[in-house]
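Example record used in the benchmark description.
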Amino acid sequence: MTLGFLSHLDYNLWLFRLPIMQELIRQGHRVYAICPDGEVSDQFAREGVIHIPYQIERSSLNPLKEIRAIRNIYDAIKPLDLDILHTFTAKPNIYGTIAGRLAKVPKIINLVEGLGSFYLENDLKSRNIRTLIEFLYTRIFKLSDTVMFVNQDDPAYLISKKIIAPEKVFLMKGVGIDTQVWHPEPKTDEGLRVTMIARAIKHKGVVEFIEAANQLSQKFPDVTFQFVGSPDNGNRFSLSETFMQNQSSLHYLGHQDNIRHILSQSDIFVLPSYREGLPRTSMEAASMGLPIVTTDVVGCRETVEDGINGFIVPPQESKTLALSIEKLLRDPQLRLRMGEASRIKAVSEFDIDTIVSKHFEVYGLKRVH
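Model output (structure tokens):
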């Protein structure tokens, strides 16, 4: 069997799809990573994955450039004689499905990890882009064979709007993490640490986390409230580096590569986001055995059972967020119990081996262990 993985970014395939591609190769299948040249695209070859480059402008809405992008994808995949084309993120889902049908690929599968930030605002631009996305998805999903989702809310919404037929929906719990790598480790640092990891943008609930830290730091002066992540330049809702650095109650770490170590030295993980697909950071924190405080929104609520492995709070409410964090700060046994429940949930629901098997199921392939 010959399979093509299509994305607009090489990192998307390298960071999140590699275990699936590796297992397909181990099972004797031929795998292509179809993505523009990038920082990691030359590393696919050492894993046995064949890289096929094409050109696309990620932020362009120019119709002529978009037609050219579809042609570029078609030219890239037509000679490959693919049996399955799997597409990831909005533009590759839309353009890749069109190009795949023109190239007569027998089976086309889309992955929708989330509906995006345009579903969080109600300004004219957001409404117009939502309308365009739904118009295009209504037509694209008729052409694709299966659409994979990482939470229950997004497909339910699309079904209610008659954008997708229920029989085309395939649910799974995120892109998976290696729970043998992301495992609890002994804490060596002293003092309690409350950690948030995200892009520094409004919709991740960064301001609410800062407000909660401001409230709690007065009661708990020895607790460290730390934020890991950097501004998203070009995103109109991004917070500035200066703003993040000037928060007196916040230890701002910026971008970090040693996330596993940071989580191993943390006591509580917080993600007060307004909407997610299914947040990888929360899955990693759960796998590391941390209690989680998150919001009652799409994606986030799938990572926490309220009162079991953490707390679910209303979005955009820093007082309620602070109260839930405070409960955990005051009760070491509660932190321990919820952290153990997080680990159990991660292993049973988010482990990469389970997710790989789900992919084989949707591909219609037998997996030999």
